[in-house]
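Example 5.3 — DNA-binding protein H-NS
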Amino acid sequence: MVFQRTKMDAILWIRTTMARNGITFDQLHATGCFASPELLQHARVTVKYKDARGHAWDGMGSIPEWLQRARHARQSIDHFKVD
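Solution (predicted structure tokens):
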């Protein structure tokens, strides 16, 4: 089965990547990687920036592409700030 082979390859890749980076299952569990979908629904992210098309960003991590394009077009990031 092609699907079965792909699934096994993915599992092997995950385990190899974990071993290469020294990550344990306990560490993944502690960060919430195995949380149920019901618990994840309750973890709401606060939107700090939003555009007219509905793109949103919580201000964490890298600036999303839609906001980078706006900045390159000389729009202020404050224009997209949600009050």
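Remark. The radius of gyration is 19 Å.
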